[in-house]
Amino acid sequence: MKFQFVAAVGVVSLLGACGGSSTGTSQIDALTEEAAAALARVEPLGFTPLADIPDTGTASFSGVVAISDEDATDAADASVLGRMTMTLDLGDDSASTGSATDFYDLASTPVGGTLTLDDFVYSEGTATGSFAANLSGRLTNVGRPGTDADYDYDLNGGILLLGDDLDAVQAVMSGDVSEVGSSEERQVTSASVLEAN
Known about the structure:
- By secondary structure, this protein is α+β, with helices and mostly antiparallel strands.
- The chain has one domain.
- The chain contains 2 helices and 8 strands.
- It has an 8-stranded antiparallel barrel.
- Strand 7 and strand 8 (185-196) form a beta hairpin.
- The chain is globular and about 45 Å long.
């Protein structure tokens, strides 16, 4: 239960940094509202019991991902929201895939680039369906439109299956982000709520 709580808190705190569930029409407002609605549906599901996870087949999910850079000089520098898709291969964790794209910074300015979700490792012997994975890649135009604000992300974290029928996943990841051309690295946190397609 602890990881689900951490995942929920991570998503809620990241959404809070983006202005909560406002009724505006900007891209960031729409993503925030979508994530909050998904979180409300997903939170009551509870963990997927290990016995209910098949050992063959695939499960596909999609939803909103938020990446927060709390250490940035400008809070919007590397804080973004976007869309994530994930396909878990339940028989071969190394064949699981995912990506995050269609990012916007907190001013609703489009952010270029795609982050790849890979290096899945199924956690054997746990009471729930959990995976570890890596989210990495480069985003451009983050927080500073029209400049070379390119960021490399490298995050690792856990992914939990939720619901009796693999209804959803929650993922929380943390790691480093650095601006291309700079030796400075900062800690960032990523949280996502994805529902079955």
